[in-house]
Design brief:
Blueprint: E1 40-44, H1 56-64, E2 69-76, E3 82-84, H2 105-109, H3 129-136, E4 141-146, H4 159-169, E5 176-180, H5 183-192, E6 198-201, H6 204-207, H7 212-218, E7 223-227, H8 233-241, E8 246-249, H9 254-262, E9 267-270, H10 273-287
Parallel strand pairs: 1-2, 1-9, 2-4, 4-5, 5-6, 6-7, 7-8, 8-9
Antiparallel strand pairs: 2-3
Helix pairs in contact: 4-5, 9-10
This protein binds SN-glycerol-3-phosphate (G3P) and magnesium ion (MG).
Length: about 290
């Protein structure tokens, strides 16, 4: 597996005036559309400011807006199919009710995951992971976030194994990065595949006071993901010193995008990937 996080950056001490890219940091995942700026524009749940989150129309729009990666939330249906939906229940983003895990794929496919957002999106279905990968292959990298409630001790046949099987089917192993707030998901994934790109999504309770470097090393991950608020100057310094790629969520305001970029993140999750792309392109132009 890549060991970029063990390398001490040469440019220590100047954090704040530089970003991760200027440290020649290796990206933890391959991009189909790399513009070689070393930064990843990520459509959070697709272009979810403009379309219902985690639907095909939102993912396609993110791609068309120039995002280099889409982020999706993954859980399992009752019959064990990897499904793309954020919440544990159907209530907020579909016309169904109750736990997602109580419904089979064919039952969930009957639901409307668009009307809650706007009448124009009526009838938009909940996608499967397979449908998203089929679209993304050759076009856009994918961050597969495994939802905590879907994770079990059954690492051989659980959500991680099922998702990995699909990624391998579409030969996208280098173009996806897994992540989870449930650290067990990362452990399960590593038992299945030591090379598949993975990121730890910071969760205080499971971190037991460990810092970024310790966590990244302990879980053998290629990147560290956290919220915009959590990514302090102290953490930025530690990530920079140890060459750890950091991705922050969810940043939709221009001023905050600029701040995070200056702080050295390798990528930003945004519901507005079009705005993020414009901001980042301009930041680069002004630095040249
Ligand atoms: O993976 C980044 C971000 O999506 C994590 O939070 O709740 O939006 O899935 P959430
Ligand atoms: Mg997510």
């Amino acid at each position: 597996m890549k060991s970029c996080f063990f390398v001490i950056a040469l440019c220590m001490g100047s954090i704040g005036s530089m970003n991760a890219q200027s440290l020649n940091m290796e990206l933890p995942v391959k991009l189909y559309s790399d513009n070689e700026d070393g930064f990843i524009v990520i459509g959070h749940r697709g272009a979810s400011a403009y379309h219902p989150e985690n639907t095909m129309i939102a993912f396609k729009a993110a791609y068309e807006m120039g995002a280099e990666m889409i982020e999706l939330d993954l859980t399992l249906s009752k019959d064990g199919v990897p499904l793309v939906i954020h919440d544990e229940t159907l209530d907020r983003t579909t016309n169904g009710t109750g736990n997602v895990s109580d419904y089979t794929l064919s039952e969930i496919k009957e639901l409307d995951a668009g009307s809650w957002f706007s009448s124009e999106h009526e009838g938009e279905p909940v996608p499967t992971l397979e449908e998203v990968l089929k679209f993304a292959k050759g076009k856009i990298a994918v961050n597969i976030e495994i939802k905590p409630e879907a994770v079990t001790e059954n690492w051989k046949n659980g959500i991680e194994a099922k998702a990995l099987e699909q990624v391998k089917k579409y030969e996208m192993e280098e173009y996806v990065i897994f992540s989870s707030f449930n650290y067990r998901a990362i452990e399960n994934l590593r038992k299945l595949d030591v090379d598949i790109p993975a990121a730890l999504l910071y969760e205080k309770g499971q971190s037991e006071g460990r810092g970024i470097t310790e966590l990244v090393t302990d879980y053998q991950v290629n990147a560290f993901n956290c919220s915009r608020r959590q990514f302090s100057k102290k953490w930025a310094e530690e990530a920079s010193e140890n060459d750890i790629p950091v991705f922050v969520y969810t940043v939709n305001r221009e001023s905050r995008m600029k701040k995070m970029f200056e702080r050295g993140v390798t990528g930003i999750f945004s519901d507005k990937p079009d705005l993020l792309k414009t901001v980042v392109d301009n930041m680069w132009k002004s630095k040249r």
